[in-house]
Amino acid sequence: MPVPRVAVESFLHRRLRDYRVCLSWSEAMIDAHARRLPVLPPIYYRLRRHQKACFVVGANARRFYFANDTGTGKTVLSVALARYLEASGSARRCLVLVPREANKFEWEAEVRKHAPDVRCAVLDGSNRRKWEQLTENEDALITVGTYMGIVSMVSALERRRKRRGGGEVEEVNKLVPQERLVHALCASFEAVFCDESHHLGNKSSLPFRVVRQLSRRAAHFYCLTGTPFGRDPEALWSQFYLVDGGDTLGPTLGLFRAAFFDAHVNKWGDTTYTISARRRTLLHRTLAHRSLRVEIDAADLPRVTEITRYVRLPDETYEYYERASSAIADSLSTGIHALRNAFCRLRQISSGFVGYTTDEGARAELEFPRNPKLDLCMSIVESIAAAHKVIIFHEFHHSGGRLTASLDRLGIPSVMISGLTRDPGGARRAFLEDPAVRVCLLSNSMVEGLNLQVARYGIFYELPVPYITYYQARRRVERQYSEHEHVFLYYLLTRGTSDGRVRALHRQGRDIFEAVVRGEVSARWALGAE
Predict the structure, then answer these.
(1) Which pLDDT belongs to residue 522?
(2) Could you state, in order of their start, the residue ranges of all structural domains in the chain?
(3) DSSP β-ladder status, 486-494 and 303-311
(4) Strand partners, 345
């Protein structure tokens, strides 16, 4: 049902605050505002000017959204706010939520660095052990957990009926939040910080629903991310709804879409939304009612040299790729999901293997005899002086295994941070602190929120497809407070494949699937079939 026009017009013409003016204040003016607060945290005067401005706003507003660029110091800002809340008597315990296991230990290290006298607890281990840790660490100001970790803590597996596509009903195990456990978690914390909050962009997801309960009960609530949303505006609405219950972007997603977005029906029958050109400025002003966006200062970034290196598939592999891409491109009428699956398969081929399912239903990989991209990657790593550290970004677990084996054969110590890593915190520490560990193999799925600026070289063995993920990955090397004045990024592309298509759209700040959905490029072009 469409939203009435009168409701949209009333929503658009509300009186709203504009916090952007705070970023134009002089440091003396910011300090004057800060001195009016009941107390100041010990680390306040170590903050940079933009961090001080954000701190003053966050301390006064109590619920706020910081969409600050990656590398602008959102973690130290959060630590300063947590210490202020403690010192002012507003919060005794603060919960920090992060997307992945590796990010928990990153936060712990940052707290030790900026506030060594603050006790920080990390929720780790089984659900039972995490509840024990909550009790054992009642005096910890900051407790760090993951989004799915807290969902698991407060949920139980229950048998639920699920209707399949053909109308068939089956029973499945499903995580269901338990009211008693949710209440116990909420009662433990007065303040919540959601790091990389775009992971809460789906309002139907379990993490959103659990964090929504935390938000309703917490006196102080903050969202922080450098990449607020990609193609779907729902991600932005959901995060702001957690912050202020709809005060900024409306009480319903439908109203937000009707006010600021144009709807398009693509050739697969799906509706997509793009920001209305005539409402873009108004949207930015509306967002400023409860958020600030700090762009990274280019003067603070190291100089970057980008190097693109090409390889060619061996003739027998290229023939396989061509046949596969043509056959797939001709049968994509089923929808965007078919395109994603096909795209994944072709990217695997360009990296020297292809995944398949055995007759027994197990996953397996077929490796091609020669892998020029792997050979090129190893030659680049060998050419880099042993004193410099390297991050190799990869997409597939199989590629990570091949890269590890190749580095081992060359006698080059490495660590891997991926979804399969048992101790991502230990791997991160080894890369940062052990001079012998030269290479970090970093899965594209794990790039967010890691401070790895010790690396001078980054090698994109496999580019991430979403532009947001690429941006996050790049910022692991091109980062504020880098140890290096000059850093290097290598892009390894296989000629005649989709590698170049992904890179071309990344240069324009675009996502290849978004371009296909909008009809800006064809599916055949995206797959490298034309």
Answers:
(1) 77
(2) 5-148+179-296, 300-526
(3) parallel
(4) none
- Do the Cβ atoms of 215 and 62 come closer than 8 Å? no
Look up the CATH architecture of domain 5-148+179-296.
3-Layer(aba) Sandwich (3.40)
Q: Tell me the three-class secondary structure of 302-335, residue by residue.
A: CEEEEEEEEECCCHHHHHHHHHHHHHHHCCCCCC
How far is it, in rounded angstroms, from Cα 530 to Cα 367?
A: 25
Which residue, among 11, 17, 466, has the nearest Cα to 257 in the 3D structure? 11
Q: Which two tokens stand for residue 409?
A: 């054969």
**Whether the predicted pLDDT of 296 surpasses 80:** no
Write out the two tokens for 401: 């295994």
DSSP string, 64-82: EEE-PPTTS-HHHHHHHHH
The type of residue at 414 is S
Please give the structure tokens belonging to residue 133: 């840790």
Superfamily for 300-526?
P-loop containing nucleotide triphosphate hydrolases (3.40.50.300)
Residue 324 backbone phi and psi in degrees, to 5: -65, -45
Q: Confirm whether 5-148+179-296 and 300-526 share one CATH topology.
A: yes
First to last CA, the chain: 41
4, two tokens:
């009435």
- Give the closest residue to 267 by CA, choosing from 334, 192, 185, 209: 334
| Contact predicate 388/456, CB 8 Å | yes
φ, ψ of residue 74 in degrees (nearest 5): -70, -30
Q: What share of the chain is helix, strand, coil (3-state, %, to 5)?
A: 45, 20, 35
Q: Residue holding tokens 């063995």?
A: 461
pLDDT tens sequence across 369-423: 889 999 999 989 998 888 899 999 999 999 999 999 999 999 999 999 998 888 8
One-letter amino acid for residue 101 of the chain: E
Which positions ≥6 away from 284 have C-beta within 8 Å?
none
In 10 A of CB 233, how many CB atoms?
21
The answer to whether 90 and 61 have CB atoms below 8 angstroms apart is no
Beta bridge partners of 265: 271
Q: What is the pLDDT of residues 466-523, one digit of tens each?
A: 888 998 888 888 876 677 888 899 999 998 888 988 998 998 888 887 777 777 787 7
Going by DSSP bridges, is the β-strand pair 220-224/303-311 parallel, antiparallel, or unpaired?
A: unpaired
Residue 191 confidence class, pLDDT cut points 50, 70, 90: very high
